[in-house]
TrEMBL record:
GO terms for molecular function: double-stranded DNA 3'-5' DNA exonuclease activity. Pfam families: Exo_endo_phos. Its EC number is 3.1.11.2. The gene is xth. The keyword Metal-binding applies. PROSITE patterns: AP_NUCLEASE_F1_1 (PS00726), AP_NUCLEASE_F1_3 (PS00728), AP_NUCLEASE_F1_4 (PS51435). Its cofactor is Mn(2+); Mg(2+). This is Exodeoxyribonuclease III. Residues 238-247 have a biased composition (Basic and acidic residues).
Amino acid sequence: MKIATFNINGINGRLPRLLDWLAASEPDIVCLQELKAPDERFPAAAIEAAGYEAIWHGQKSWNGVAILSRIGTPVETRRGLPGDGADTQSRYLEAAVGGILVAGLYLPNGNPAPGPKFDYKLAWFERLHAHAADLLASQLPVVIAGDFNVMPTDLDVYKPERWQDDALFRSEVREAFAKLVAQGWTDAIRTLHPGERIYTFWDYWRNAWGRNAGLRIDHLLLSPDLAARLDSAGVDREVRGQEKASDHAPAWVVLGDKKRRRSAPQRPPSS
């Protein structure tokens, strides 16, 4: 089973790129972020024609998440992250599909930091901690996939010294991500590629793509039973180099049918 996450950065404007990637990569399940479209403007017909069923949680101009599947209808189990009934931003969607529970998220950016947006990010993280702990306690096979807007370590950012005060790299945010993983989640890409510089995002500005000045902010976290089935993980970085591309590239994991033994990986450099 191949599961991917892709911040599409405007699903209608980049629909041809999305459809091309779906045809080439053939993921079984996809979590999308930054739809930037209200529910009624989600391109359901085009997605269906590509062989995928979908559920989505849209928002005009901003945010928006979706779950696509070509292995069965996603059965929605949650819309919106619990813990704050006043939060109306479309950032979390959860569904049962293909025998697993898929949680797709778009964590707040948080800039400028410090400030109200950063406070919202940290509060959102706290709510995620609580809900993720409940997901683990359920003992269901779960993947949490999406744009976390966090570079967990120095290895995940091209020039760490330039990002110390950014909301994607401040110590509070990295500690929040580490606390989440410490619950028992496996960061799939880092587990299989412990010492590599692998990026998922390259800004449109200052020729970031051409210079490979990237960030790893899109992650797939696996519950213990799915982590035991982890075969491979990577990033389709060539998608970022296409014309009118998103500033993100899709990240993915492949899960085998059976649990596999794996020696403990080397720890990445501490941040």
